[in-house]
Design brief:
This protein is of the alpha/beta class. It has 4 helices and 10 strands. Strand 1, helix 1 and strand 2 form a beta-alpha-beta unit.
Length: 210
C-alpha cells in the first residue's frame, strides 16, 4: 500500500511512518524542514500548504500529522486539513487526521465535550478548540474520504507500545482500569490498522489503551 504522511517530522507522524514501514507499506514523507526526522525511506521537503493535487496523486491514503502548540498557530489546524481536503476532493484517496481528545463527547446527547469540563487544563484550551473546529469543518465535507482519529485524554509521547487498544467512537471511552490513556506508538498502530482495513469514512473515531 502506498501512503503519504504530511507534516511527517512530528512525533506522532514519526510513529505512524515507523509502524507503516514495518508492515511493508510504501511511505513517502512530506515536511518543511531540510532534515528528514520522519524515518521514511522517501522524503520530500515541502510545506503542507504548498502541496498540490499532483503531489498526492497515486497514494491510497494520506495521513495528516500536523500539530501546533502556540496559540497564534492554532487556526492552522483548520487551514491545513481543509487544504488537504481541497486537493483530495473527488478522489478515492483516504485522508486520516491526527485529532485531539478535547472534542470527544462526555454525554449521550453529544452536547458536551471534554474541554467544556471545569477541570480541563486552560493551557490546552486553544488547541482543543482549534481541533474541535477542525472536526466541525470536516463534517461539512462529503467530497473527501476523511477519518478523524482522536486519542485518549492522556496521550503519552514516550508510552510503551502494548499492541492493544480499544477502538471507540465519538464519546470519551475509559478502559477497564477507568483510564483514558494511550501511547503515541499504540495510536500509530490504530492509525495504520484503519488505513489497512478500516472503513470509517467521514467519521470521527477514538482509541484508548486496552
Amino acid at each position: 500500500m502506498k501512503i503519504a504522511v504530511v507534516a511527517a517530522n512530528g512525533r506522532v507522524a514519526q510513529k505512524v511512518v515507523k509502524e507503516a514501514q514495518e508492515r511493508g507499506f510504501d511511505v513517502t514523507a512530506f515536511a518543511r524542514e531540510d532534515e528528514n526526522k520522519s524515518g521514511a525511506a522517501t522524503y520530500i521537503k515541502k510545506d503542507i500548504m504548498d502541496l498540490t493535487k499532483e503531489d498526492l496523486a497515486g497514494f491510497e491514503a494520506v495521513v495528516d500529522g500536523f500539530g501546533a502548540w502556540k496559540d497564534e498557530e492554532q487556526p492552522m489546524h483548520v487551514k491545513t486539513s481543509q487544504h488537504l481536503c481541497d486537493i483530495l476532493s473527488g478522489t478515492g484517496t483516504r485522508l486520516l487526521i491526527v485529532g485531539g481528545a478535547g472534542s470527544l463527547y462526555v454525554n449521550p446527547e453529544h452536547t458536551v465535550v471534554v474541554c467544556d469540563g471545569p477541570d480541563f487544563p486552560s493551557e490546552f484550551m486553544p488547541l482543543a478548540k482549534a481541533q474541535g473546529e477542525e472536526l466541525a469543518k470536516l463534517r461539512d465535507r462529503n467530497d473527501v474520504n476523511w477519518t478523524f482519529i482522536s486519542p485518549a485524554g492522556d496521550f503519552q509521547a514516550d508510552g510503551e507500545r502494548s499492541g492493544k487498544y480499544i477502538l471507540a467512537g465519538e464519546e470519551l471511552t475509559l478502559n477497564s482500569k477507568g483510564e483514558s490513556i494511550i501511547s503515541y506508538a499504540d495510536y500509530a498502530i490504530a492509525m495504520v490498522d484503519e488505513i489497512e482495513k478500516g472503513n470509517h469514512i467521514q467519521q470521527r473515531i477514538s482509541v484508548v489503551r486496552e
